[in-house]
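Subject: Sanity check before I submit

Could someone independently write out the C-alpha cells for this chain? I want to compare against mine line by line before I put it in a report. The sequence has 263 residues.
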Amino acid sequence: MLTYLLLFCIGLAAGISGSLVGLGGGFIVVPALAFLFPDMPSAQIAGTSMAMLLFNSISSTYVYAKQKRIDYQAAIRFAAASIPGSVIGAFFAEYLEGKLFFISFGIFLIFVALLLLFKPNKPIAWPFKPTVNRSFIDNNGERFEYAYHMPTGIIISFFVGFTASLFGIGGGSLMIPTMTLLLFFSPHIAVATSMLQIFLSSVVSTSVHALLHNIDWFKVLALAPGAIIGGQIGARLAKRLPAGLLLEILALLLIVVSIRLII
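---
Independent answer below. Compare away.
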C-alpha cells in the first residue's frame, strides 16, 4: 500500500511538471523508478515511464484542446514522423543497460537544459524559407501568428521519437526547444502542441514496449491516476504563467534531474 501511495505521488508530480512544460513527466518518473527499484531493468524503466506518459498526455491534451492552443496540423505531422523513431528506440532500449543508460540520459538532459537557459532572445535565423503560415485565436481571444519550415520539424521529430522511446521521457525536452528556437512557435503553443504529439507517438511506443514485455503494469496502474490528475493541474497552471518562465522552469528541472542521474 505504501509503495502504491508513493508511486501515485510520483505520478502526480510528474503529471503536473510534465504537462506544465510539455515534457510529459518522464524526466521525473525515470530517475524515481531507478532510485526506488535499483534492480529494475533499464528497458523496463523506459517502457513503464512511456506507459505512464500515455495517461498523462491524454489528460493534459484534453485541457489544452479546450484552451484552443494546440496546432493540430503540426502535432499530427510531427507525431507521424516520430512514430518510426519511437519503434526503433523501443528496440534499442533493450541494449542500453545500467550506468550507460543513466549517464547517457543525464548528459542528454543537461544539453537540453543549457540550450534553454542560454537560448537567444529571438528565434535562430533559419536558412530555409517557411513552408507553413499559421494564425489562430485561443479561447481567451489571444491571437498567435507564426510561420515555420515543416521539413525541419519532421526530420527532427524522427530523432525525437527515437530518443523519447529509448529513455521513456516523452520527447518534449527536444521538441519544445526546436519549436520555439527554430520553428518560431510561441512557448505556450509549443507546450500544448507537444503534449498532443506525445500522446500520438506514445500510443505506438507503449505498444512496442508492451510487446517486448518492457512494462511493469502494476507500477503503471499506481502512477497513472496521479499522472492524469497532475496533467489537468499542470495544463491549467501553464495558462497562467509567462512564456519565458515556462522555459526557465523546464531548464532548472532538467538540470536537477540530470545531475542526480549521472551521480
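---
OP: Matches mine. For the report I'm noting this point. Strands lie at 132-137, 143-148.
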